Each structure stands twice: as structure tokens, then as C-alpha cells.
Amino acid sequence: MLQKSFSLYRSIFSVKSFSCIKKYSTAANQQQKPSAFMVFNRETKRIQRDRSSIDIEESRKVDYLKDEIAYRMVDRLLDIKRKFNTIVDLGSGCGHIIKHVDKDVMKKLIMCDISSKMLERDKDINYEVDVERIVVDEELLPFDDNSLEAVLSNLSLHWVNDLPGAMIQIRKSLKPDGVFIASILGGDTLFELRTSFQLAESEREGGISPRVSPMTNTRDIGSLLSRAGFNLTTIDTDDIVVNYPSMFELIQDLRSMGESNAVLTRRPFLKRDTLLSASAIYKELYGNPDGSVPATFQIIYMIGWKPDVSQPKPLSRGSGQVSLKETLKGGDGKSNKSNDN
């Protein structure tokens, strides 16, 4: 279990970098249209992320979760035995991946985010890897087809309306045998907060509203990757539990992270008695013996590769040369089943 006060910085590199902010306005980007299926208000999300970066010191205090997940993502990247020239960090926020990489991993990282203020927060910090900062909407990628070696995305794609469409754009932008590594919040994230609000609103207001954003689940991610055209997919999950003094500190940290609710159908106001009721229910149902309350973050990690002729492929059906039946038999020709007497 992770405590809120713990330090998640494994290594910070004291090095050179160059920074620039620019907005992409390519012909390809202008031709794309957003999905008609809308769940989240992207403009609201941009404003939330902008506001979360105004107070720099307060913003840095809540980097603990995304920094930790970024570290685990880079650990997966290191399993790929190749050195990259340029990697795109999609939905980079203030910069979490960059804290854990060096020139042995890549030469340059392109940080992309919908919020220019988030990109600018740590622009004065020097890193060993060259940095380029670009304002990009994850739903409208400006990159040319077959142009990128790798794309990383750390806890950002759960705010995308058309997740399959975003994955297809990522796959198209990758070179053959390019890799896509992402982390996304899963459906069990903040189940304690969701349950507490639902019970409180049912009791106080006679109905419920979406106070916690809808999220995908693990079994759907594999289908999404395959639908987007990725090969050799890998999916795994982590449950990270962070303890807070009360529900109110959790809500404040989510706001400071830029992770407040952005669902189109959300209610604009929350009654005071409903909020107090939710806090009491939270502590009663899930509270720890020391008076703190846990918040669960389910993290789904995914890896997918753009198809290439050099990648290993399964043998065609019926081409096997070894009998499974013979393999399972022992030296005396009998099956290796144990006798339970």
C-alpha cells in the first residue's frame, strides 16, 4: 500500500535540455473531425488542467501518482532492447515520463498535452534527454503516418471520447514494428468514492448522478488494441491504494492533478449535506483503523506493436511436428498423472 507522503522519485537526472512550446496546425490535423460519440467535455478538461498548474508548488505535491506510474511504464520500455531516437509522450501533463529516462533510452522526447500551462510548468528544469513541448489534443493527432518509433501515454487516454479512434491514429502514426505503451485508469478506480456518492445522493436527493467518470475495464482493452490493428499485445494491471486523512483531501488532490469530473451530463453543483453524508459513508464503509480513508487506483498497462513482416507469427494450423499426447506421456508410455491414494 502506498502512503501519500512517500517519495516516488527513483532518479532525477541533472542534465541539459532544450524546451519550446508550439501549437500544431497541420493540414492533416485540420481535416480530422472529432467523434460524434461524446462522453467528456474536452474543453472543460483543458480548463481543469490549466487551472491545476497555476499554483506550481501545489501542483508538484500531487505528482506522486503519475510519477510512480511513469516509472513503471519506463521499466516496461527498458525491456525493449533498442535505443530510440525520438519518442512521443501523449498526454504528458507537466512531465512524468521525462523524470525517469536518460540518453541510454532515447535522444529526444516530444511531450504532448491539451494544456499549454501543464506543459510549461516545469519548462525551466533541465533533463538529460532533449525535450520538445507541443500542444496536442489526444483525439486529433498531428503526426504523419509511419513517422514515429514509439508512443507512450501515461494516465491520459481515459479522458478521450473515442478511444478506439485514438488508438487507430496512434497505430497509423507509428513506423512498422513501432511500439505503443500506455497506462489508463481502470473501472475499479475510486470505487470507494463512487459508492459513497451514490449512497449519499440516493438518500439525500432521491437519485444519483455521475460524480466519478466512467472508465474502461481490463477485458475490453485487449479487444480495443486488436480493433485498432496492434499485434503482440500485452495487458496487465496494478491496484494502487493511497490513504488520505478524509474524502475531502482526496477530492482536493484530484482537483490539483487536473483529474476532476468532466462528464458532459454531470451536475454542476453538489449540496453541502450530500457532500457531508458521502464523507461519513466513505469513512464508515471503508475507513482505516487510524481514521484515514483508502482510495484505490486501478491501473491498466497495455503494450501493442504495429504489424511488420519481421515480427514472429504463429504457425499455420496443422503444421505442428510434435504430438502433445506423446509429450504428456512418461518414459514408460503412461500418462504422468499422479495417483492420489
Structural overview:
The chain is of the alpha/beta class and 341 residues long. It has a 9-stranded mixed β-sheet with strand order 1-8-9-7-6-3-4-5-2, with helices on both faces. The N terminus is likely disordered. Helix 6 links the parallel strand 6 and strand 7. It is built from 11 helices and 9 strands.
Features of the shown structure:
Methyltransf_11, S-adenosyl-L-methionine-dependent methyltransferase, Malonyl-ACP_OMT, 21% strand, globular, methyltransferase, 341 residues, alpha/beta, Rossmann fold
Based on secondary structure, the structural category is alpha/beta
Strand order of the largest sheet: 1-8-9-7-6-3-4-5-2
What is the residue-mean pLDDT, rounded to a whole number?
83
Number of strands: 9
Total number of helical segments? 11
Reported by name, the CATH topology is: Rossmann fold
Name the CATH superfamily assignment. Vaccinia Virus protein VP39
User: What is the helix fraction of residues, given as a range?
Assistant: 25-40%
Largest sheet: 9 strands, mixed
Spatial extent as radius of gyration: 23 Å
Rough shape?
Answer: globular
Give the low-pLDDT segments: 1-36
From N to C, what is the helix and strand string? EEHHHHEEHEEHEHHEHHEH
How many domains make up the 3D coordinates? 1
Q: In what range is the share of β-strand residues? A: 15-25%
The appropriate CATH architecture is 3-Layer(aba) Sandwich
CATH class: Alpha Beta
Please give the alpha-carbon distance between the first and last residues. Answer: 43 Å
